[in-house]
Structures are given as structure tokens and as C-alpha cells.
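User: Modeling request: complex.
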Amino acid sequence: MKTLLLIVSIVAMPLVSQAHDYFFSFVEMEYNAVSQRIEATLTVTTHDFERALEENGTPIGNMASISKEEIEIIEKYVNAHFTVKSGDQKSVLKFMGNEVSMDGTSNWYFESESIDFQEELSIRYDLLMDDFPEQQNKVTLYHMGQTYTAAFTPMNKTKQIYIEN
Amino acid sequence: MKKILLAAVLLPGLTFAQNRFAQLGEELPTPNEYRNAAGAPGHAYYQQKADYDIEVRLDDKEQRIYGEEEITYTNNSPDQLEYLWIQLDQNMRAQDSDSKLITIEKMEDFRSIGDVARKTFEFDGGFKIEEVTTPSGKNLKYAINKTMLRIDLDTPLKDGASISFRIKWWYNINDRMKIGGRSGYEYFEEEDNYLYTIAQWFPRMCVYNDVEGWQNKQFLGRGEFALAFGDYEVAITVPSDHIVGSTGVLQNESSVLTSEQRSRLKKARSSDSPVMIVTQEEAEANEKEKAEGEKTWIFKAENVRDFAFASSRKFIWDAQNQPVAGKDILCMSYYPKEGNPLWERYSTKLVAHTVKTYSKFTVDYPYPVAISVHSKWIGMEYPMICFNGGRPEADGTYSERTKYGMWGVIIHEVGHNFFPMIINSDERQWTWMDEGLNTFVQYLTEQEWERGYPSRRGPAYMIADYMRGDKDYISPIMTNSESIWQFGNNAYGKPATALNILRETVMGRELFDHAFKIYCERWAFKHPTPADFFRTMEDASAVDLDWFWRAWFFTTDHVDISLDEVNWYELNTMNPEIEKAAQKESDDNADEFIGDTRNREQIEETVNERDDNIDDFYAKRDIYEVDALHRKDYEEFKERLTEEELELLNSGMQFYELKFTNIGGIPMPLILRFTFADGTEEVIRIPAEVWRRSEHEITKVFMFEKQVENIRLDPYLETADTDLNNNSWPEERQPTRFQLFRQKQTMENPMQRQKRVDELNEK
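Assistant: Request completed. Predicted assembly structure:
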């Protein structure tokens, strides 16, 4: 059956491949059992992130000093591309801060609203994948003394993690 | 709790699971007369030579290249060649290119009108071959297979013989800003000007060698180039107001430069700081008016594997001298005003620093010039010239991140002169051999540019996030260039890290630097393979690294060594005065069952307390008492010992048995920092061979004359251990990045601190 393609009328900036790009981001996260919140740090290649937001039609002026409005853009973007589902609950991440390093990476700190951690977590992490076909992401979860990892590609944007409670 | 060590009987391990330490036999090709077992070129090593005489015209109106070349190919192999293969790398942009066909696509790739426009954008790229002839104009039989062209020879080219032939072609130059590319043009709409960075622009001979025969892997866009060395004479015709930067040495200064420019260039040749050849003011004037005529710039380059150039009327140009081993290198930069103020200040100095520092670690830079050309954001390398990103904002300001980005890319791309332009590995097969080695020396060079330089790659700990855990989308380093998952981490980061670990931890700087330089010297202006590198590093250092190559280059294992258990023992002195007292102290301090405590409080008197006849010898004896027989036995024991043994017995020696598990799979040295009760520290380094007979779990006993309070495995972050939470005794959880961020949030910010400093100063 034919499906109508809805074209979003964003006039995107030209996105061209660069010879030496990085295309890798990762999340380090831990479930805070006291606050029942996920504490997550996204580490991204800053210029990849900048260009993805430009492509999204929401460019950020200066990553090292973002405004309140830009925080909302980033929150929305990250929540659309990094989600943790536990049972019928889905994470909603709130921006806590960021740090831009001179080595080309930046850390973005997020905390979720309260969420119950169940045995099976379904994680979607497709940050930057819409814009960079070679993008790969990885999640490292620390929970109750155990470490869990999951890698994501544009062909595998969602993975399950089974945690030992 | 401390345990008393009574006796130790060591039993040798009876099983030898030595897969990770097996020699790299089957994985490497058998050494032969072309490449020997030491990793050096063998006595029969040969390589082909390809000399080029090219005339090229840059059409600035149509953005086209028109070229005609005469290639002289010399067959130094022992083989007769029935045909010749030539690379047509521009054909990767042809409309029927496989590169487009093999791209994986999803409907998500078409979510915006911009996406659709890009996907439907048609560019008539690729070489348009007009003629393939003998020098006298007789047509040669040829066939094109996508990005390669085969010339069928009437008679085979014998060993030692040469053949010359001509090719005429043209192609449309790609708009690098729209469709990407290692080369192409950038259009500056405001003044209707172009900046051309031209590469892969002429049909180039494929490599024929003892490893692959003819290089026969098509150019799909990622695996770069395998090219033969040769001499070039290239005449580049461009609009007369263009400035050209190119591989090679300019042969006709007087025809293309003004006398003022020639005078400045002469000054630059002996200057240790940049001298302006074309100033920004002059370039800005130049770009405003377009000349009608053309000029031909002639360059010669000897013993290079490729040739690239850049041309624009927008170019500012500066140069300085950098001596290397008594030879003068003219370091130069070409950039438009859009690159300033960054480029004028840093580019040429970075070029000079890079050729000097790389020469120290590899081979002396052999070419007479080294050039950095500004492009908006790419980084791409060619012999003597490279195209580098790093553009300030339109208002002339730039972020610190832009500055470091520009510094890093210039050092990296200039560094590529050494890998693979001089040490000429096959990029089409092995990206890591140039990118990995180059990224490693880039790190060394950055650290000599600025103390504490924020290098992106090199330090061991920086690769941990990539290597740990889920291996679904990770490839071994030894993966062909086109099939690599995670190109940047796999081909740049991981090999650079591995070499850093060899240098800092496994081999040590002196052995590593010696062996690495030997490799570079052996294979300068030759075609090395991975085996040549692996073998030379071992051969020149007397360090068996097969386990290291196997783990780091042939697997996707990671480093995670866990310090699982620490058992503390002390020697039994056999002295009853000491041991009985120690036993009493231990018993007195032992945990007591709650029932015993309550019984002592609640039972007022027991039967034996009431009746003296109940307690017998056993009940009345003091087990902690030292009697004459104990003393006699001790004296007799001492008499059996030598003086040295007695001294050892009384030394108070503490024994710590540590158990380690190799969770990640890569065997690595154990670097252990012991902190003692008196606050002092000792670092002990155990070579990785400790794992050779037991890959997964080992124990090791450490003896000290004082008590240990804390043990830390890999305290200097030198092994790329991916989980630091299992590296300490007593257990110490490392804070997550989030927790560290939170901690920082609660501290005063730098401005608050400065306020306090100001207040203090006022007092």
C-alpha cells in the first residue's frame, strides 16, 4: 500500500560529508534510586550536534552559552532522540547543564522526571542519525553495581536492556 | 582481615590456555624476498615508478578541469605486465557511480524538502576521457571499469622496461559546499568568486606490487588511495589574477609573480616567522576585479605519490623557512580573507612546527615545501599540500573551539605528508596505517605546541567509551577501509591509542621511539603493509608484541581488568611471645554472638562457677600462656635457621594476595599503586605476560614491610580500562559524569571566586 510522504517544509542547510568526521555519541546514565530519576550525560561531537540542530531548523548560536529558549530547543531535540521506556512509562528529560570542551566534544547533562525502573528497559538512542548516516551511539547504564551497554545505528535505533534488580 | 601465613606450596599451572599469547603465525603473510621477517624491505623488494608530464587548464567560468598528460611507467617488478591499470577516482561522482547505488537509504532520509533536493540533485561528475594514445598519437586499446581504466598492451611490458602514453580528459568540478568531497570548489556569492582545491584531478597509475598485484579495489568514497611514486612536471593554466599553491616547486616565478612578490618570497626563504607574499589588502583588491587573461604556473615535484593544487584570486599568501636536518623547508599558507584573523596568525607557524616535530619522530621531511590551504571545513591531504578547515565568524571573531579545531586539522593534515605520502601505505586497504599512525604523531605534535593541549585522540582513557561493552557495531582495526564500523574511532582513535599505550606502558618511550623511527626509515618512499609495521616494531625493540597486535588490532575486545579480591597475610614468626599475644588480641577482638553477650549478662552464675570440682585441666589452662616448652621449641627452631632467614622471619613482612579477572578480554600490564598506612606510596608494574597461562583470572602476591591501606589498579589511566569501578581496594566507586557535574554546580563559580580574591586583595 502506498503511503503519502509528508514533507516537512524546512529549507535545510546543505549537509555535506566531511573527510574526517566523528559520528559517535554516547550516553552515560545511572538510575538514582533515591530520587527515582535517570541521571544522564550525553557526550557528543559539538560541531555534529550544531549541524544537526541547524538541519533541524533550530540553530544554536553559541553552544557554550545557551539561552533559555535554546535550552527548550535542545530539550525537545534530545527527548525526541533519546528515550528510556520502562513498562508503560517513558522518560522525560530535563536539561540540567552543559560543558563544551576544547577537544571538540561537549557534555549535556539531563535528569528525568520520576520513573520506575523495571526489569526490561527499551532504549531508543538515535541522536544525530537523521543527519549523519554513519552515526553510531552507545549507552552505558550503571545500575546496582552492574554495567550495561548497548550500541545503536541508523538501522538499529532501539535496544532492550534487561537489568538485574 | 589479616591471615597468618603458615606454609606456601606453589603448584605450577597445569593448563596452558595461550590463545591470546599465541604468535601471529596464520594472521600474517609468510615473509619472503620482498618483505622479510624483520619487517624490512627484502633483498628483492621492488616498486614501480610513474612519471607525469601534465598540462591542465582550470576553467573558472564553467568550473571545469581540462587536462592532458603523458605518463611514463617503469616496470621494476620481475613480472611481465599484459595490461596497465589507471585510477579514475573522479568517476566516484559519475551519475552511474556504484557509490550512490550502495548507499543504504530509508524514508527517514527524505523528511525535509532539503533532503529531497539533495537526493534528487544531479551532478554530471566523473572523468570524460577523450583520448588514450601513444606519445605519437596512435590510439591505445582501453576499457573503463567504473573508477578504473585498463590499457591493453600490444606486447607485455617486460621487467625493467618503461612505456609512455597520453591521456586527455576533462571533468566538471564539484561544488564542495553542496555535495561534499575531498576536493572541489567553494563559491563566494557576495563577490562572485571561487576558491578551488583540486585533487584526484588526473588519471593516476594504480600500484602494482608483490602484495596485491594490481591494486584492484574500486574507489567507493571512503578507502582512499594507493599510488606509485614518481616525478611530476605540471603546467597549470588559471585566470591571470589567480594565485596558485601546489605540490612541488614553482619553476617560473618571474612569469607569474610580481617583482615585489618575488622579493617577499626571497625574504621568506630565510625568515623564521611568516612573511606576507600577498597581503590581505592586496588579496581583497584582487578579488574585486576579474582579469580576462590566463597565466600558466609550472611546478616540478620529485618522488611524490600524488599531486594537488589550489587556485583562487582570493588568496592571501604567507611563508616562512623551517630548517630540518640542515635543509630549508619553505612553509606556506594560502587563505582567503574569510580565514582571518586565525590563519594569518597561526597557519604557517603550525606547518613549520608540524614538519619539525614529525621529522623528530619519523623521518626528516624530505620535500622543499609544505603548504596549508584554507577551506571552510574539510581536512584533506596531498604531498606537500593540504586543505584545512577552521573559519572564523563573519565578524572576525572566533571561538576557542574553532581555534583548536583549526590547529588540530592543520597539524593532522600536514602530518599526512609522512603517513601516507612518504611512508606510503595502501589506504584503499588499510585506513589505520595512515590515519592511525598520523593521529598518534599528531597527538605528540600537539603536546609540543602547547602544554596541556586538549587533544581529541591519543590518551588511553579517551577511547574507553567507544571500546566498552556491546560489540554489535565495532570492527577490529584490521578491517578493510570500506567495511569499517565507526571510521573515526576505529581507524583514527583506536590505533593512535594503541600506539600511545605501547609507548607509555608496554614498551616505554625509548624502545618505542627507536622502533617507530626504524619503521619510518625502512619504509619511507616505499609501500609498507600491516605485517611490516608489526614485525619492525618487534624486531627493532626485542619486545614480543604479538599478543598486543592480536588483542588490539585483530579483535574487538576491550580492556576491563578487575581487582576482585585482596587477601592479607603475615608471616608466622614462630615466636610464642608474639604469636600467643597476637592470637589473644585477635580472639578478644573477634565478633561475639549476641546470645553469648546476653547470657553473660543474664545468667548470674553457672554450675562450674558455683562448684570448684567441675573445672578440670582443660578448663583451667590459659591457652595464651607461654610456657618453657614453647620457648624451648622456639629456640630450637631459630637454631635451624640461617641469620638471613631469621632476619626475614622477624621483618614483619606483610603479604597481599591480589586476585584479578580479565573481563574485557585484552590482556594488559597491571599497574598497581599501593598506598601504605604511613602515607607513602609504591607503584609496581607487572608486564601483560602475567596473563600468558591464565587468560581470565590470575592471582599475584605482593610483599611489603608495612601495611597497605589502599590499592589502585591503573592509577594513571594508561591502559584504556573501561570500568574504573572495579580497580580499587577497598572498593571505590568512580563518580559518573553527571555526579561530577553536580559537584561542580555546588561549588562557587569562577566569578564568585574572583570576587573573594578581589576582596582579599583590597584588605
